[in-house]
Design brief:
single chain; alpha/beta; Rossmann fold; 2 domains; five-stranded parallel sheet; ABC_transptr_periplasmic_BD; ABC transporter substrate-binding protein
Length: 317
């Protein structure tokens, strides 16, 4: 069931990043979200979220519901375990998240959330398909703070700093961002001496519809940081046929899902894939999709895992 949830979440992500959101009027503001934060948050606090929705918090939130795993991971990393009272059905990290009240999936249960009496609901751009539910929560007087779907490390840092300010964890948020930046820089430096960048194909779903991240995506940024080349030059999320993958002849094929058993062997066995360099060099690898798809504190860990999969020689002396 969790694998089905993960696949559904990926499909929703594709729709948002491809510009096919069910609520196209939901657009993040154009200005940079957070440039700096102060030590501590003064309440009452009136602020706007990534979509210019204004919220007012009379005091520091003590009963928080999170509607998306990425937000949940940030909130837990900000040491808010005791304040988190509800999470989505997708949430499985950290392990403490599994002990929290489940409030549904993409179409969350409004009544269940209201019953928890939260003083803050942290939503995500992917919740746009449940706009009516968000409206009901706001009409019930519950502050709903929505973050944009981050498509870069800088955007993720902004999200962390924004949430840190809202929940009175500014110092913790700054420290989290600092540690992530250091980890990203470590990967950059570890691969900086690569002479010939490897050409990489990242596969995020299996047949019959193989999707891959093209330019202007988070994965494309990660590949650039580690001095690798994305074989896909089209913008956004692209559907690729097996024949097109063979034609691109990547050095490495990265599998970014786990809902198909023995997927590495299945990819290798696709027609004509025996002529692909990645198959010939045993460079079809699988990575943890959650580390790479959830825009939170573990993204730098996901970058490291991806870099080690593409350039194992750069990390293992």
């Amino acid at each position: 069931m969790k694998k089905q949830y993960a696949f559904s979440l990926w499909m929703a992500l594709f729709l948002v990043l491809a510009g096919c959101s069910a609520e196209p009027e939901l657009k993040p503001n154009d200005e940079s979200t957070v440039q700096s934060v102060v030590d501590g948050t003064t309440y009452p606090l009136t602020t706007t979220d990534s979509f210019d929705n204004e919220i007012t918090l009379s005091e520091e939130p003590k009963r928080i519901v999170s509607l998306m795993p990425s937000n949940t991971e940030i909130l837990f990393a900000l040491d808010l375990d005791e304040s988190i009272i509800g999470v989505s059905d997708f949430d499985d990290y950290p392990k403490e998240a599994e002990t929290k009240e489940k409030i549904g999936g993409m179409e969350f249960n409004v009544e269940a959330i209201l019953a928890l009496e939260p003083d803050l609901v942290v939503a995500h751009e992917l919740n746009a398909s449940a706009a009516d539910g968000l409206k009901q929560l706001r009409q019930a007087g519950i502050p709903v703070y929505t973050v944009a779907n981050a498509a870069s490390f800088d955007a993720t840092y902004d999200t962390i700093l924004m949430l840190g300010e809202v929940v009175n964890r500014t110092k913790e948020a700054e420290q989290m961002v600092k540690e992530m930046q250091e980890a990203v820089d470590e990967v950059f430096r570890a691969t900086e001496a690569i002479d010939t960048p490897k050409r990489v194909f990242v596969e995020t779903s299996d047949l019959p519809h193989i999707y891959t991240p093209g330019t202007d995506t988070f994965i494309d940024e990660m590949l650039s940081i580690m001095h690798a080349e994305n074989v896909v030059k089209e913008q956004g999320w692209v559907e690729m046929s097996p024949e097109a993958i063979v034609e691109e002849n990547p050095d490495v094929i990265v599998i970014m899902y786990d809902y198909v058993p023995n997927i590495i062997e299945q990819v290798k066995a696709r027609p004509a894939f025996d002529a692909v360099k990645a198959v010939q060099q045993d460079a079809v690898v699988q990575v943890d999709e959650n580390l790479l798809s959830r825009q939170g504190p573990r993204l730098s860990e996901g970058l490291r895992q991806l870099a080690e999969a593409v350039y194992p020689e750069a990390f293992h002396d």
